[in-house]
Structure formats: structure tokens, C-alpha cells
Amino acid sequence: MSDLYCVFGNPIAHSKSPAIHAAFAAATGQDMHYEARLAAVDGFKPAISEFVAMGGKGANVTVPFKEEAFRLATRLSERASRAGAVNTLAFNGTEIFGDNTDGAGLVRDIVHNLGVSLAGKRILLLGAGGASRGVIAPLLAERPASLFIANRSAGKAEALAASFADMATVNAGNFAKTEDMIFDLVINATSASLSGDALPLPNGIFAEGCVAYDMMYGQSETPFLAQAREQGVVQRADGLGMLVEQAAEAFFVWRGVRPATRQVLADLRSKLGQ
Ligand code: ATR
Q1: Residue 141: its pLDDT value, please?
Q2: Averaged over 199-206, what is the pLDDT?
Q3: DSSP string across 31-69
Q4: Which of 30, 83, 108, 162 is the most exposed place for a label (fewest CB within 10 A)?
């Protein structure tokens, strides 16, 4: 019987993870089955128990369960501890290993797929929620010149920055505080585009040759990438590459094999009609 994996979320019906992992498994010759499983909002723990009892070997975890998965894990990777959230679980006997591959996925997409080195760059990270927290340590590990976290509520950004003070000096404030600052890479980790909102970004924050990266993706251009385009940013990317790369990293955690991602990403993009 094939080894069993899944992704838990709510909602989950439109998840692209089953197609991504099926493509990885086929390309690497791994005998595994990966499915989407809906867990009740208050039923994540029993859903995990049931899946483990079925012989499940590992799972991805998405909204709204990443923090609960973090608390459920009996052992955590360093990057999951830092993120305060888990998107990848591996089950081994009674052990529930929790990892977080989101930040690694983001960095790999930027460095490897977009060909943009982060070393020495001035980075602006927009948002101070879970999505933002998950990528900070992997970004700092690339040794940027600076990292500024901007958020609607400044206090949340300042608290988040302070929690990484042992790694590097991270500055923070509200969006207005970035006025007169300039950045080589601006990453949107807010959920503002879900409500169709544009962010109150001051003019002139994008350096010549700046990269704008939105961790969100969709069929049409996100409001943040539209803002960046209007400000003259040429290199703009949505989060589809991050989605595929975090999946590849999870696949590696489970199987010890790193799948190629280029074709899988290209196929997903053409399905999105982009
Ligand atoms: P996630 O896990 O996706 O990060 P979250 O923890 O709820 O979700 O965080 C959402 C982030 O998007 C926060 O930084 C939030 O800003 P606040 O902390 O000020 O709430 C940000 N956000 C959501 N909607 C926004 C909007 N319309 N404008 C600006 N920021 C927004």
C-alpha cells in the first residue's frame, strides 16, 4: 500500500497541494498517496488522531490550524519554534514532529526561481501576523542589510521585531514610518488583499531595481502588486512559487528526496490562466 499523506485545512476543497505532491511523487518515483482532508474548526486534534490511526505518515497544515499544529507537536524543528506555527507534520510511532517550511519556500522562490540574492538587501516586510512571523528567521539567515516590519498596528510589528532581536536588529513601525526609507525587496505578508484593500504605502519606498513579492496569489493581479507596478516596480512576483517551494521542502522532510519544481510551477500557472 502507498504511504499516506494529506493536507488539513478548513476550507480545503480548492487546495493545490494534492496536485503538487502527486506531481512530485510521480517525478521522483515515490510510492505515496496525498489527499485533502477537511477538519472541523474545533476538530483538528481528533482529525489528526484518526489520520494517524489510518496509517498516515505525514501532513501539511494550512489555515486555520497552523498554531494548533504547533501546540500539538511533541517535537519541533528550530524553524517551527521560531515561526510559532507548523505547516508540516511527520508521524512516527507516538511522536508528532512539527516543522515549518513556509520561510524556506519563500527564500527559495526568491533566490533560486527569481534569481535575486538577499544578502546585503534592504527588506521591507508588510504585516505582523502568522504569515510574517513564519518567514522572518529564514529571511535573516540570508544576511540582508536590514529588515523593517511595517504593520497597520505598530505595536504588533514592534513586538514581532523584538522577538528576533537575538538574530539581528529588526526595525518596525506603522506604514507611515517607512516614509523617506527605501527598499530593495518589499514582501507583502498581510491578508489585506483578501478584503481587496490597498495598503497605505508611502510613495518612493521602492528602490531602482526593487523586487515586489506578494505571498498571496490569485487569478488576477493582487492589489499590492498593482500598487508596486504603478510605482514603477518591474520585477513583481506572487506567492505561487512559494506555495510550490514550501511543498517541495515538506516533501524533502518526509521522503528525503528534493523534487524539481520548475515544471510543476509552470503547470499551475497555466491552470490559473496566468
Ligand atoms: P496571517 O496568519 O495570514 O498572517 P493574521 O495573523 O490574522 O493572518 O495577520 C494578518 C495581517 O494582515 C496582520 O498584519 C494585519 O494587520 P493588523 O495586525 O494591523 O491587523 C494585516 N492586515 C489585514 N488586513 C489588513 C488591511 N486591510 N490593511 C492592512 N493590513 C491588514
Answers
A1: 97
A2: 96
A3: -EEEEEEE--TT-HHHHHHHHHHTTEEEEEE-TT-HHHH
A4: 162
What's the 103 CA to ligand 1 centre distance in angstroms? 18
Q: What is the dihedral of CA 201, 217, 161, 245, to 10 degrees?
A: -140
Instruction: Give every CB contact of residue 184 below 8 A, 6+ residues apart in sequence.
Output: 121, 122, 123, 207, 209, 210, 211
What are residue 5's DSSP bridge partners? 34, 58
pTM for this entry = 0.97
For helices 17-28 and 240-255, give the axis angle rounded to 10 degrees. Answer: 50
Among residues 16, 45, 57, 66, the one annotated as catalytic is 66
pLDDT over 90 at 97, yes or no? yes
Mutate to test the pocket of ligand 1, among 132, 151, 177, 191 (most ligand atoms within 8 A of CB): 191
